[in-house]
Specification:
mainly alpha; 160 residues
Length: 160
């Protein structure tokens, strides 16, 4: 499929940007989630680092249906804008390469992401949701499903 140098170049650039944005988006999600559950992780001494890693890997599988298409969209736009700004798209079209052929690496990555989301929704997501539910019931005692009476942390001032 990726037989020419320019196809491999476009595909490699797409992969770089795709995984950069996917990693950044999930890192931000994990950071915010960890900050909300940090108290539960420190209070419960039974939670090990391996449990937290498994928890966030299953969280990734749960959130992949949103993160993967968003990262793919941003990667596609970024790579196409970069190719256009550097004049590479014009050079490829001037050399006689059809626009459909230029888009092949982008469609290949899009197809791979679609298959990943489909297979993960069918085979991985049900077990990960079960694990996440059990993990929340066992370890998140201070969260909104546990003993906390208020859904957010409230600090009442003296003058209300």
């Amino acid at each position: 499929m990726l037989t020419t140098i320019w196809e491999r170049y476009i595909f490699r650039e797409m992969l770089k940007v795709f995984f950069l944005f996917l990693g950044c988006f999930f890192f931000l999600y994990a950071l915010i989630d960890y900050s909300t559950h940090m108290q539960d992780f420190f209070v419960d001494k039974r939670i090990q680092l391996s449990h937290i890693v498994i928890y966030y890997s299953f969280q990734f599988m749960k959130r992949a249906e949103m993160l993967v298409p968003l990262s793919l969209l941003i990667a596609t736009v970024k790579v196409l804008l970069t190719l256009n700004a550097q004049g590479e798209l014009v050079a490829l079209q001037a050399s006689g390469v059809a626009l459909k052929k230029i888009m092949r690496p982008l469609l290949l990555l899009g197809t791979c992401c679609t298959l990943f989301n489909l297979l993960s929704a069918e085979f991985i997501l049900p077990s990960s949701l079960n694990y996440l539910d059990r993990f929340r019931e066992e370890h998140f005692k201070h969260s909104f499903r546990g003993n906390r009476k208020e859904p957010i942390h409230v600090l009442y001032l003296k003058d209300h």
